[in-house]
Amino acid sequence: MQLQLSLGVAANPRTWPILDGTVAPDGIELVTNVVPVSELFWRQLKFADFDVSEMSFSSLMMARANGDGRWVGLPVFTTRQFFHTTLLVRRDAGIDTPADLKGKRIGVPEYQQTAALWTRGILQHEFGVAPTDITFFMERVPSHSHAGAVNFRAPPGVTINQIPLEKSIGSMMLSGELDAAMFYIRRYGEHARNLIDRSTADLWNHPDIKPLFPDPAAEGVRYFRKTGIYPINHGMVIRRSIVEKNPWVVLNLYKAFEQANEVATEQRMAHVEYHLAAGEIAPEARAALRRPVLRHGIKANRKILETAAAYSHEQGLTPRLMQLDEIFAASAMEQ
What we know:
single chain, D-Maltodextrin-Binding Protein, domain 2
């Protein structure tokens, strides 16, 4: 008889093979639920809705540091991005370089979210802009936020204002009440039924708004070549009580997500070959395009994870520097 577990994840190429049944973990029947990640993390932190789920790495570190032992981390990393390159600014705010963010009003969906953690860390270490140099405005309200679920309070010296319910980051950017937006989340598409975010304005195509970095892709390349870091956003967690009763589930789940990632990679490679055959991609690009960039496991991602942990402590989100063996299942630490 298989162990039945509920699974909460967002849909992306690396999780679809799990969701559609192409890949199944040995000995486990997964009851799958596709949930917008903003809502998913809040539900997990506040209500523990699912046995296994995606989880904000920042929130997981904070929960563990504050004594919340309900979750054990799995080194499965479903999304990553150069988050600082997504900063949007008003054209009339006098912001042309990252240094110009000092003294400005910046909207953020969730101060503690991993995307914001990475953005603040990179702004500080690459461009000399500290969190204390900025006035933050947070969109999510205490009752429906990761912060509310873990009783987060603003670190010393950091100003975080609450955006009132009748407003949003999008509306305040358009009215000029905010100068910039950090990792803007708009309610449309997969986020349309999101319970906790409420911005609806299309800032990316508005004439009054521009990206902070004129060429975001070039900035991502610069940062990666300098640091070797491709920031991780989400990991996976499993209920600790399940691991204690069934320790074998950790590696069975890990193996399944590894296989799902391989399926996604094979599908991407098939598209690469089609474009090569059509002459749309130079043959010399084949090696780079075939190189796996998104890998699971501690060994492949230790530097990234330890950098995130250092930023979390530096920014006052965690009271001490979290060690990876405090966060992830012991049996997965050698993966």
